[in-house]
Each structure stands twice: as C-alpha cells, then as structure tokens.
Design a protein that fits this description.
It contains 5 helices and no strands. By secondary structure, the chain is mostly helical.
C-alpha cells in the first residue's frame, strides 16, 4: 500500500471513530457531527481507493462524483450510489445555523457509512 493511501485511511478511521464515539453519547449527542463525520469517512475512503489506483481526483466533497471515478475499477460499488448521495449532503448541510440533524438521520448516516467502509476496507485488503 502506498504511504499516502495509508494516510487517507488513517484520516478516514479518525472520522469513523469520532462518529462511533458520538453515537454512544447518551447525554446530548451531536447529531450534526455524526452526519458530518460519516460523510467525511466515506469521502476519505473513496479518495484512498482512488489514490491507491492512481486515479486523479479533485478537492471535492461530492461522494457521487468520486464514486463515478472509481466505478471503472470497482463496478460493484454502484450499489452504494444512493447511500453516498445521502451522505454527500452532510459535508456542509448541518455545519451552519438553519438546519440540524435529528437522531434518525444521524443513525441512518452511521449505518450507511459502516456498510460502505466495510466494502472499501475489503477492497483495500484491510
């Protein structure tokens, strides 16, 4: 594995850990944070796989656009299109006043992130 790929994975795992820890918070969990870190975990895992395959990508947060780039080598990942589209909105949606996540959207984001993470880790031999 290339060193930068490993760095992307470490960053993704940091976001995954933050999401998981916040999901266990019993008093005043940060649902916005859960959604944000779920999106970030998926984004960084997509970029890790793209980098490992030597596929150039731009500095974007659109998970579906990143998925479209990876499908040439991971065609089975098409099954995650809906999940990634859902998570993609959380890059900015709840980070500013005006909108907030609720328990249902946070747990849905966690579930979708976990499923996608599992597939990417398998593809990367982790």
């Amino acid at each position: 594995m290339r060193p930068i790929t490993a760095e992307w994975i470490a960053k993704a795992e940091g976001d995954f850990g933050m999401m998981e820890r916040e999901c266990t918070e019993m008093n005043n969990p940060n649902y916005d944070g859960i959604c944000f870190h779920a999106q970030q975990c998926a984004e960084k895992y997509l970029k890790a796989r793209l980098y490992e395959a030597d596929i150039k990508f731009s500095k974007i947060h659109d998970l579906v656009a990143l998925l479209d780039q990876i499908l040439q080598i991971e065609p089975m990942w098409e099954i995650f299109r809906e999940d990634l589209a859902y998570l993609s909105d959380f890059a900015v949606a709840f980070r500013y006043p005006g909108e907030s996540a609720d328990a249902e959207s946070a747990h849905d984001a966690q579930h979708r992130c976990r499923r996608f993470r599992s597939m990417v880790r398998e593809a990367l031999g982790l």
